[in-house]
Amino acid sequence: DSIDIGMVWNGLEESRCTDFLVDRPPHNSEYFSNQIKAVSNYFKFASNDNLEIESAVISNPDPENENYKLSNNMQYYALSDNRLAELFKESLELSKTDIEEHLDAANIDIDQVIFTVFHAGIGQDFSFPTFDPTVYDIRSAYIEESMFSDDIDFIEINGKEIKTGILLPETQNMIFFDGIEDIFYGYDSYCDFQLGMTGTFAFLMGYALGLPPLFDTETGDPGVGHFGLMDYGS
User: Fold this and answer.
1) What does the pLDDT read at residue 105?
2) CA-CA distance, 83 to 74, in Å (whole number)?
3) Which residues are within 8 A (CB) of 201 and not within 5 positions of it... i.e. 6 or more apart?
4) How far is residue 228's CA from residue 156's CA, in Å, rounded to a whole number?
5) Which residues contact residue 163 at a Cβ distance below 8 angstroms, ignoring those fewer than 6 apart?
6) Cβ atoms within 10 A of the Cβ of 91, count?
């Protein structure tokens, strides 16, 4: 069920925000489908209707739980690029049968597919002016072949080895997690500290579509400008 804006936190019925709530729960299949639709709408508009992304959300057919459960905890996967790639691969392994059933039923060419894995929790993608109490959150990434360990056996889906894809969190909005109280201590409302996921998603989708980075990849300094998608536009 969806939860009310007046969420239970610290054991009390208190509200973290009484205004508009970004990424409102429930975070179910429909929610993730809407996240993809938002990115598709962005690229459709930015390309003058020349690019439209069609999508399907693959979830666990278990009626008790839509999610797939990985073999390790969040901290394990957060430690390196290799571990991020491992998370991506393991997620596809767990859902391989369900993915292939959908691709076959919809007659979808595997060469036209960009896989995106959404993991539980928030992304380790934004810095804040205070300490970070959640250092083992998983950062979002465009997964590429170089991130896999040398001895990896790539998963095959419909006969194709999957070496690239996108890794994203459930949400970028810290308002749903206790850490926001430590980072922005002393505030009565957290409405102004909400972050959406569309920008991060569109940025990583840009890599998947072959767009080059437009910032200094060595220093992180901006290149074309803060509002360019492949610069700081996310």
Assistant:
1) 95
2) 10
3) 35, 36, 38, 39, 116, 166, 168
4) 35
5) 144, 145, 148, 154
6) 21
**Dihedral, CA of residue 143, residue 145, residue 146 and residue 152, to nearest 10:** 110
Q: What share of the chain is helix, strand, coil (3-state, %, to 5)?
A: 35, 10, 55
DSSP-derived secondary structure letter, 203: H
Count of other CB atoms within 10 angstroms of residue 19:
10
Side chain identity at residue 151, one-letter code: D
pLDDT digits (tens, 9 = 90+) for 31-72: 999 999 999 999 999 999 999 899 999 998 888 888 999 999
- Which run of H or of E encompasses 73? none
37, 55 Cβ separation under 8 angstroms: yes
Q: Which residues pair with 161 in a beta bridge?
A: 156
H-helix segments, 120-189: 179-183
Question: What number of other Cβ atoms are within 10 A of residue 8's Cβ?
Answer: 10
- Render pLDDT for 159-197 as a digit per residue (tens, 0 to 9): 999 999 999 999 999 888 877 887 888 888 889 889 899
Torsion over CA: 145, 210, 79, 168 (sign): negative
32-57 b/e with 16+ CB inside 10 Å = b? beebbeebbebbeeeeeeeeebeeeb
Q: Are 90 and 165 in contact (CB under 8 A)?
A: no
